[in-house]
């Protein structure tokens, strides 16, 4: 049975940052990174570019084998975690092998959540979460004419754009009243929707799928909506969200709610076991409650904190809480959001539509959210204003009028 000091389960941003952090404090401790994927580490955010053909599958890797050799870390692909015995400190794998560890990081990420739609299990559908998914979707696009996408989140809209640009007739079905509801308010989303409509993408909003049935011997399908409409498709993409990969932890004693529960150092409820990234349910900055925030900056920050704690950093940093940050590029446009950009209750909202679209959200004269479409802003500065809870009372009018300039001036004063 292989035995290592540090065992990292997962190979994306959280695990890679934990590796880097561990090596900062412990250059020699034995280490292994185990992943269910067949490839060297890559970022899920690059997958739309693989689908579009703008990036080749072999050019999107985050690290090469030389990196693992230089960091004395054994990289183990094609090995899915199937069980954890926390008392014996052993991890069971789908290969039949078991590993023993002194300290363990759970960074198994998330997997597509398939909605409980009647007939969904009888039809061929695609998801977009892995490199193989991206390669499969790109291949399927070559022989398709009519595509239906379930879900108008980032994954669904990225894929819809790629398919429309490839010449397919594309329909997107979304249960909410506007696209990207977790990141943007209705007005911002309307600008995104207009761009999609202008490129021939049909959006079915506030629409619920009640059944899917196979047609033409399984080569196509019909998507039935609750209002009686039916959409024909020879390519179906399910992009209705993701859920943390935690089933392999059943019976381990590791506390799991929606994700793996962690404290301010990313420790789980079990001794010498940490979690980070999409799988971790850590503190949300705004509410102070545990939440899932599946974005790269959060994964990197959590991985860094987990790694330093695993390597016994003498001056550990507590996780300050996650703040959602998203940048979305579509059809030559760009939309950005940070914090509680779509909040509506108990807040002050300032909207400017002079050029693009800008929405500032304040509470008690403090910035808590910012969104824009075709009006770039300084994400770093706005993030610091939010995290430091800077009182804008004395300059609120100038901040609302010129948020970037005013924000930079404020932060330069704060950093003196």
Automatic annotation (TrEMBL):
Keywords: FAD, Flavoprotein. Its cofactor is FAD. One of its GO terms (molecular function) is oxidoreductase activity. Pfam families: Pyr_redox_2 (PF07992). Gene3D superfamilies: FAD/NAD(P)-binding domain. InterPro entries: FAD-bd_OxRdtase, FAD/NAD-bd_sf, FAD/NAD-binding_dom, PadH. It comes from the Bacteria. Residues 5-303 form the FAD/NAD(P)-binding domain. The keyword Thylakoid does not apply. PANTHER family: NITRITE REDUCTASE [NAD(P)H] (PTHR43429:SF3), PYRIDINE NUCLEOTIDE-DISULFIDE OXIDOREDUCTASE DOMAIN-CONTAINING (PTHR43429). Belongs to the FAD-dependent oxidoreductase family. This is FAD-dependent oxidoreductase. It comes from Paramagnetospirillum kuznetsovii.
């Amino acid at each position: 049975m292989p035995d290592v000091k540090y065992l990292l389960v997962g190979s994306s941003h959280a695990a890679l940052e934990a590796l880097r952090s561990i090596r900062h404090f412990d250059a020699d401790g034995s280490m292994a990174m185990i992943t269910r994927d067949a490839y060297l580490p890559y970022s899920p955010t690059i997958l739309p570019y693989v689908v579009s053909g703008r990036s080749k599958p072999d050019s999107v890797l985050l690290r090469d084998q030389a990196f693992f050799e230089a960091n004395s870390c054994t990289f183990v692909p094609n090995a899915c975690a199937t069980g954890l015995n926390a008392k014996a400190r052993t991890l069971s794998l789908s290969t039949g092998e078991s590993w023993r560890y002194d300290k363990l990081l759970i960074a198994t990420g998330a997997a597509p959540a398939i909605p409980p739609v009647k007939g969904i299990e009888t039809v061929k559908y695609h998801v977009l979460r892995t490199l193989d998914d991206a390669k499969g979707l790109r291949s399927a696009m070559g022989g398709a004419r009519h595509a239906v996408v379930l879900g108008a989140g980032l994954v669904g809209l990225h894929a819809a754009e790629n398919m429309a640009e490839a010449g397919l007739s594309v329909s997107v079905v979304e249960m909410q009243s506007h696209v990207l509801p977790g990141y943007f308010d209705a007005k911002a989303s309307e600008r995104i929707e207009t761009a999609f409509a202008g490129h021939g993408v049909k959006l079915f909003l506030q629409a619920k799928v009640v059944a899917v049935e196979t047609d033409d011997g399984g080569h196509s399908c019909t998507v039935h909506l609750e209002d009686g409409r039916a959409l024909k498709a020879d390519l179906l993409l399910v992009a209705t969200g993701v859920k943390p990969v935690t089933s392999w932890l059943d019976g381990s004693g590791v506390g799991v709610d929606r994700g793996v529960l962690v404290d301010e150092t990313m420790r789980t409820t079990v001794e010498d076991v940490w979690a980070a990234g999409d799988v971790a349910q850590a503190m949300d900055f705004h509410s102070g409650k545990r939440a899932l925030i599946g974005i790269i900056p959060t994964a990197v920050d959590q991985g860094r904190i987990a790694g330093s704690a695993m390597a016994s950093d003498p001056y550990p940093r507590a996780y300050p809480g996650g703040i959602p940050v998203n940048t979305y590029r579509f059809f030559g446009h760009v939309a950005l959001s940070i914090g509680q950009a779509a909040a509506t209750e108990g807040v002050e909202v300032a909207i400017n539509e002079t050029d693009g679209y800008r929405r500032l959200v304040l509470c008690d004269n403090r910035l808590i959210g910012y969104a824009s479409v075709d009006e770039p802003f300084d994400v770093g500065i706005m993030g610091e204003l939010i995290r430091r809870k800077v009182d804008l009372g004395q300059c609120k009018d100038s901040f609302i009028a010129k948020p970037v300039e005013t924000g930079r001036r404020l932060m330069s004063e704060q950093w003196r």
